[in-house]
Design a protein that fits this description.
The structure holds two protein chains of two kinds. Chain A is an all-alpha fold. Chain A is 74% helix and 1% strand. Chain A has one domain (13-493). Chain A has helices spanning 2-8, 14-36, 44-64, 84-108, 116-134, 138-156, 163-194, 199-208, 216-234, 242-249, 252-277, 282-305, 310-334, 344-369, 382-385, 387-401, 407-421, 425-451, 465-483, 486-493; strands at 74-75, 80-81. Chain B is mainly alpha-helical. Chain B has a domain at 302-526. Classes of the chains: A mainly alpha, B mainly alpha.
């Protein structure tokens, strides 16, 4: 089959590919022009990045209507899926990237790390993430994963003069490389079992092959290795140990990016592999996801409580959030591949979009108020020094805790609803109790910000305008979606639940 | 309760009861830093407007209609089957009025405890937001909507306790938030399970509408019990029912005075109200089945609260523990399943809000003057401030349940109404009435009697402004104590409808002789 197509080449729908091309092309141009021209005016690089992301997002929106809702269309000879799941996640990735670009300017402006490199890497990572969530082909997915990961490794170490940043980059590189190896081996085994790496072909093969002839051991081993790779990327327990160190050491704007786009990419790909390609094995992978979810919830929120560093707190809380999303994946697993599946997948997708904005907003405040070490004490009295900033932080932090009338509540409600609909009552109860433990962490931040007075004289933090803008946008989106969830739900409900 | 009636009011009264304080909260926030005095004015005006609307609802309330009145229903989150559905019936009516009146009094009655007037602004914003949340909880007829309001009240209360409370406020605020949130965790799962199980058993589509679920949803006995317990845990924490009460003394003691007033006055009622509105109405079988448990815990709460109150050295903590005891009576009446007892419970919810709210206000006034709440440091106040002592006496007697004052009517109805269905529990609970007299009178003796020492001899007499704030409380205490009929006759039809609903679903027959006694009781008091 491959031999036949060697000479004809796949037909390419350039318009549908436009979002990818804009991001990749933009990244390359930014790098080349940026390195050839003299120093740019302050903030321009960030704005160019925002424009690139926005134009790409506009292309996604323009494509949205033309995407078939049956989820069968694909691009480049089946390499990339062309469906609304991918389009929605692309939007989430691009919006988040734009927010992080603005945030990065607030962090970098005036420092010697400022320059086009960071922004190029942001765009490169975004491109990788976009490929990853749309990949209909395991090799392409791996390419996306590696593009994303390599950009992350460099970004994590991008604060070159700080040892912690270098350490963070190196740690992430070594552990991430190991996870990639697992992932790649998983692909190889899946290929061995099904003789294809294309997800849609894989499910066709699995459908036609009689059960006894399936090479189950090979396939299950491949599935297990893939799950390890995904669990590592989403920082699910017990594959989470890198996250706190990397999150803490990396520059805060990069941490925000890893926590948001990294999660979107990994969960998007995970949904595609598990729900689209391997629904016949749902009874095999669902218990694994269940265990990962429970461990992430309990360990994530439990360990967040004992941290004194805000970035580490947020890292562990992001582990716990991953647990919540895994609940949605678990719920999707009950009916994966059926004609009328339940809403687990939509719940995950919504959670991803909501969480991405929340986590960028939270880390944005950390870039201002965290000082050098991001210790929780640095936040003491922030409410009296910078009341408006503190209000913004309060909104996004309470949303992470799942307080009603914020987007975080809607997201949590969505996954719990999906779990309960499948009868996973105990999982739902456990998740909510983990949320209570998690709330303690967020309340500690609130106590520090509003109720404590700093022990020593603290200078009033200066708020870079763009960082302020990011926090404002994040808080506004949080409240808007919280008060009127249909804003987001209508979009998510347009996603097809089945892909075949 | 059975048929929702829509009264012909074009004005979205119930929605405005929620929206006006919420808008007031936003308005307070935009007040400039230079004119902080406006924030109190705005807070007062919007809470008075809300109070006036609640009075208006009371005036236009049709007392012969047991169903929901002033109903307002709009789609909200359509794809999840969630709507903005509000309604008022005899059970919620007086709680809404109480909320509407208590907030302006709490706002005007006592200033927040801090030295920096610039920090008043968020205080008033939080108070108004709290009012919106409490109103919403009492009015919601949609499970999602109810949960949203039930949870959202934690945030303003957390910040009120944490920001304007006393020494141990951080601990108290966090404990309050986490306890209540943990309870709600079970309720959230229960709400969702209720909705999905009802979808598959009788309803056919996803809806969070309370009336639809209660009337058309059917649950297998064991399923209903699980679901009921999910709700019950949340309510039991909120009430609080022994042994889930440990957050309450801390929260009450550390909260600023207005916070305590609101917490005791209306927020605890979210739990007892929740039992009636969601527990008994949605899961009558489960509520009947588990009644011995709740009756027992209620009686333990009555005795434990009273004994613990007797032992307290801190006046505010004493009042806090007395709440545990009083709420025990309300739970007792709720699970006695007679019209009288439940009517008494609803009445007692309002009474407790009035008398304990006023007690907390007066304790706050004592603290303002003396900067201590320790009973041992107060002495002989009656000699230096006789009017103050007089007001305190009336309120205290109402809390004890002396005949002629409001506390008596509620407690008496609960005890007599429960006697037929929960005799031995009532026998023990009745001793709680005596214990209430013991701890309150003893505290009164220690604080007000005797010769004032040097520090207490300068205790200031009740000011006119304070008297004006307390007078509405006194008026309510005396009026409902002497003439409870207008209150009872508005509560009863809805309670009867609820009992009828329980009977229909469970085949339970309410014992009848009780009715003869209730007329007798009315005759005595009226």
């Amino acid at each position: 089959m491959i031999a036949q197509q060697l000479f004809s080449g796949p037909s390419v729908d350039w318009w549908a590919l436009a979002p990818y091309l804009i991001v990749v092309g933009g990244a390359l141009k930014l790098m080349v022009i940026g390195s050839l021209t003299s120093r740019w005016p302050k903030g321009l690089t960030a704005w160019v990045t925002v424009v690139i992301a926005t134009v790409a997002a506009a292309a996604v929106v323009l494509n949205w209507r033309s995407i078939g809702t049956d989820g069968t269309s694909s691009l480049v000879n089946g390499a990339l899926a062309h469906d609304r799941l991918a389009a929605f996640l692309h939007l989430a990735i691009l919006v988040t990237t734009a927010l992080v670009a603005l945030l990065s300017d607030g962090v970098l402006r005036g420092t010697e790390n400022d320059g086009p490199e960071i922004y190029t890497l942001l765009l490169a990572a975004a491109a990788g993430a976009m490929v990853m969530v749309a990949a209909n082909e395991l090799i392409v997915m791996f390419l996306g994963l590696e593009t994303l990961s390599l950009a992350f490794y460099v970004l994590a170490a991008s604060d070159r003069r700080r040892a912690e940043s270098q350490e963070s980059g190196l740690k992430y590189f070594l552990l991430g490389g190991l996870a990639s190896a697992f992932f790649l081996y998983g692909i190889a085994l899946l290929y061995g079992a099904t003789r294809t790496t294309t997800l849609t072909t894989m499910i066709d093969r699995l459908r036609t092959v009689v059960t006894v002839e399936r090479n189950d051991a090979l396939l299950l081993a491949g599935l297990a290795l893939l799950l390890i790779g995904f669990a590592f990327k989403v920082a699910a327990v017990p594959f989470h140990v890198w996250a706190p160190d990397v999150y803490q050491g990396a520059p805060t704007n990069v941490t925000a990016f890893m926590a948001s786009v990294g999660k979107i990419a990994a969960f998007g790909a995970m949904l595609r592999v598990l729900v689209v390609a391997l629904p016949f094995y749902r009874d095999d992978w669902r218990p694994v996801v269940w265990v990962l979810a429970v461990l992430s919830l309990v360990v994530g929120s439990g360990l967040a409580v004992v941290q004194t560093n805000v970035k580490r707190m947020l890292a562990y809380s992001s582990v716990s959030h991953a647990g919540f999303m895994l609940i949605g994946v678990e719920a999707a697993g009950h009916t994966a591949g059926e004609v009328f599946p339940t809403a687990g997948m939509r719940a995950v997708v919504m959670y991803l979009a909501v969480y991405a904005v929340l986590v960028v907003g939270s880390f944005a405040v950390v870039t201002i108020a965290g000082g050098a070490g991001s210790d929780i004490n640095e936040f003491d009295g922030l409410g009296s020094r910078r009341p408006i900033l503190a209000v913004g932080l309060t909104v996004v932090v309470l949303a992470q805790a799942g307080v009603p009338l914020t987007s975080g509540f809607v997201a949590k409600w969505g996954v719990i609803q999906a779990a309960v609909d499948e009868g996973s009552y105990w999982l739902a109860v456990l998740a909510m109790l983990a949320a209570v433990i998690g709330a303690f962490v967020y309340l500690r931040i609130m106590v520090s910000v509003w109720l404590r007075t700093p022990t020593a004289e603290v200078e009033r933090e200066s708020v870079p305008m763009l960082t302020g803008l990011v926090i404002g946008l994040a808080a506004a989106a949080t409240i808007a979606v919280g008060v009127y969830p249909s804003l987001l739900l209508n979009l998510v409900d347009a996603l097809p639940l089945t892909h075949r | 309760m059975i048929a929702s009636s829509t009264s012909m009011v074009a004005f979205p009264l119930l929605s405005m009861l929620i929206i006006v304080p919420a808008i007031g909260a936003l308005a307070v926030l935009v007040v400039t830093r230079r004119r902080p005095e406006y924030s109190k004015l705005i807070a007062l005006l919007s809470s008075i407007a809300t109070g006036a609307m609640s009075i208006w609802a009371l005036r236009n309330f049709d007392q012969h209609d047991a169903g929901f009145q002033f109903v307002s229903q709009h789609p909200w989150i359509e794809s999840w089957g969630i709507s903005w559905h509000l309604g008022l019936d005899g059970i919620s009516l007086f709680l809404v009025v109480l909320t509407g009146l208590l907030f302006p009094l709490a706002i005007v009655g006592i200033d927040p405890h801090n030295d920096d007037p610039g920090r008043d602004k968020p205080y008033f914003a939080w108070m108004l937001l709290l009012e919106a949340g409490v109103m919403g909880s009492f009015l919601s007829l949609d499970l999602f909507l109810f949960f949203v309001f039930f949870e959202i009240v934690l945030v303003p209360m957390y910040f009120l306790i944490g920001g304007w409370g006393y020494e141990g406020r951080e601990y108290a605020a966090t404990k309050f938030f986490l306890y209540t949130m943990a309870g709600s965790a079970f309720m959230l799962v229960s709400i969702l399970a209720t909705v999905f199980i009802a979808r598959d058993n009788g309803i056919g589509h996803v809806t969070f509408d309370l009336v639809a679920l209660a009337e058309h949803g059917s649950f297998a006995a064991s399923t209903g019990r699980w679901l009921f317990f999910g709700f019950a845990i949340a309510f039991a924490v909120k009430v609080p029912i022994f042994p889930l009460h440990t957050w309450l003394p801390d929260a009450h003691t550390q909260a600023p005075t207005a916070g305590s007033v609101v917490l005791a006055g209306v927020m605890l009622k979210l739990g007892t109200y929740g039992f009636l509105r969601f527990g008994l109405y949605l899961f009558p079988e489960a509520a009947r089945w588990s009644r011995s448990l709740w009756l027992t815990l209620a009686v333990i709460g009555i005795l434990y609260g009273a004994i613990a109150a007797t032992m307290q050295k801190d006046l505010k903590r004493l009042v806090a523990y007395s709440s545990v005891a009083h709420l025990g009576f309300i739970v007792l009446g709720t699970f006695a399943f007679t019209s009288q007892a439940i009517t008494g419970s609803v009445m007692q919810m309002v009474n407790h809000g009035v008398s304990t709210g006023a007690l907390f206000l007066m304790v706050g006034m004592i603290y303002e003057r003396r900067h201590t709440r320790q009973i041992s440091e107060l002495r002989g106040l009656q000699a230096v401030a006789p009017v103050f002592a007089g007001f305190f006496t009336v309120i205290m007697l109402s809390s004890i349940g002396v005949p002629g004052l409001n506390g008596f009517v509620g407690e008496y109805l609960v005890l007599i109404g429960s006697f037929l269905t929960a005799r031995w529990w009532v026998v023990i609970a009745a001793t709680g009435v005596i214990l209430a007299a013991l701890y309150l009178l003893w505290a009164y003796q220690r604080v007000f009697h005797g010769e004032p020492d040097e520090e207490n001899s300068t205790f200031a007499e009740l000011r006119v402004k304070e008297a004006l704030v307390l007078l509405p409380f006194i008026a309510a205490i005396v009026f409902t104590g002497v003439y409870p009929k207008p209150v009872l006759e508005r509560i009863e039809p809805s309670v009867d409808a609820l009992i009828e609903h329980v009977s229909e679903r469970t085949g339970y027959v309410e014992p009848q002789p009780a009715h003869i006694v209730v007329d007798h009781a009315h005759g005595e008091e009226g």
